[in-house]
Design brief:
Number of domains: 3
Helix content: 40-55%
Structural class: alpha+beta
Shape: elongated
Strand content: 15-25%
Number of strands: 16
Number of helices: 15
Largest sheet: 9 strands, mixed
Bound molecules: adenosine-5'-diphosphate, magnesium ion, zinc ion
Distance between the termini: 78 Å
Length: 476
Amino acid sequence: MDFETVIGLEVHAQLLTETKIFCSCSTKFGGAPNSHTCPVCLGMPGVLPVLNRKVVEYAIKMALATNCRINKSCSYARKNYFYPDLPKGYQISQYAYPLAEHGYVLLDVDGEQKKIGLTRIHMEEDAGKLMHDEHNPVSYVDLNRTGVPLIEIVSEPDMRTPAEASDYLKRLHEILVYLEICDGNMEEGSFRCDANVSIRPKGQKEFGTRTELKNMNSFRNVQRALEYEIKRQQYIVEHGGAIVQETRLWDDAQGVTNSMRSKEEAHDYRYFPDPDLVPVIVDDEWVEKIRRELPELPLVKRERFVNDYQIPAYDAGVLTADKALAHYYEEVVRLCLSPKAASNWVMGDVLKFLNEEKRDIRNCPITAVALAEMIKLIEDGTISGKMAKEIVEDMYKTGKAPQDVIAEKGMVQITDEGALGAVIQKIIDASPNQIKDYRGGKDKLFGFFVGQVMKATQGKANPQLVNELLKKMLAG
Ligand code: ADP
Ligand code: MG
Ligand code: ZN
């Protein structure tokens, strides 16, 4: 049977506010267990939550960047369940009246744009963390994370392959980081994804029963978990079984998903409006102010790079994947005015060095000014492209300007016609037999002369000039 896959993702992003969503405790990651807590986030009786305005502002930013409709009024609801990392016994979230709805993100699928719908974006609080003792049968509770603000971004079931799902996640991640409202750290859990997946026979309208996958902490693992789960569901259906709606955990070591619990339904949570919090009114003026402050978004930047710098879409994609990298690139171009050369050096050598050390462009030892200088030195013939390869490596290691590296290594290219002519004349004088053979029609000897010049100049002669002069002088 031919199956089609249906995927919808729920993403939780921790917001980079200084303080928690309903109290003034720090949101900093790490810190001694339970040191970032107070009666509010510990869920003591008799205390009241106070909404952090920054949380709403950041959530609006994301809603605008993903083309959502922002509701003029939204409110908080209690989602009731018991778990030791949830001291209040309920999570404050949004249910019937979320902040924003009906958005979309654009993907590039096989060269065509595909819209992935966003059902909603809402605000909620994070839960704490359980720490399990490896050697003893005990667990500890750390409530530092309790009350850290989250936005949940729920997609429509619009994705059809694990690759699309992974691409969608990368786009969301990119936007959040560009907006500087989330650090995007998947390993530390500031960007988390639950993946819902089902299969159906090709051509069937109704969706199949879905499973929900959790515990994937990288883009790659989201894709791997989905690939495994699709195969598992197909196997069951092909053998006459039925998919059970449930939550499954990704096991990274074994590369499989395992059943965790049967899927809860919304009514299990007994959602009800939180009586401690008033509705949030979002007026147009506030939204417009935030809209004006939005930075240029990745997709727009990408298109601008292709149009303004005439670089391939591939280059633009790599260079804009990180806002700081894009800025670095634009600085180099502004200074050397050679967009394609700049893109080659940034994407090639600079990124290679940085990746080898898992270093960030913000800490790159080669400044944009230095790289631009180097590109100009190639273009004015001072150094050859081959010399530049060596020079740029030195610049990275030492943080020195290209001129200093060149001076130290004595690497300046010989571009002086007179000086080079003299070298060539000496070689001609010393090779009477080869000259005779060359002039007699043995064209291959041209390479011999090039070799001689390069040897005499220790490879510093400008190759084009050597060619030109040799042609002229060997002709007699
Ligand atoms: P819950 O909050 O209980 O997980 P939601 O209705 O909010 O349920 O849906 C969660 C996600 O599941 C959404 O991203 C949605 O697109 C996706 N989804 C819903 N039905 C299916 C399905 N049959 N197959 C795959 N994904 C689905
Ligand atoms: Mg869910
Ligand atoms: Zn607190």
